Amino acid sequence: MAVQPLEPGARLPRRAVKPGPMVWVLGVHGGAGESTVARCLPESVAAGHAWPVREDAGPVSVLLVARSSTAGLRAVQRAMREWASHGVPGVEISGLVLIPDAPGKRPRPLREFVELIRGAVPAVWEVPWCEAWRFEEEPSMVTATAGVGRAIQGLIDDIYPTNGS
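The structure assignment produced for this chain is given below.
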């Protein structure tokens, strides 16, 4: 069964790009953590909340980023529906990075929503809450907690090819 395309007003914008970074980091909504994740990953660029589509129609690796709120998870659903309907040619989804929307345990309805989302994306990496990042203008790995460091390293290990293997 074909996935129906989104209405034009519900789609993310597109941005013509040249071959470049290994990974484009796409925040599927404002405040998702797109620039923070891009600063934490080597050879990545923040996509500016727009699908990066190569001018030469070549493949583009995209890592989605969203907050773990209802609004963030709905934005992931819309982005995946847009992608699955072949609305963004050449884009290859690496997975989704979920950034907590608040400290503490995620409420049950949101935990269930995250489990539903897991079925729509190739992989999900969850970054734990980092209190220090709330107070920084440009959060980075310099002030990340050990848990954030482990989560980001796991992401790097999963999506970047290893040298010499």
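Interim note for the steering committee: Strands lie at 14-17, 23-27, 44-46, 51-54, 60-67, 91-99, 124-126. The longest helix spans residues 70-84.
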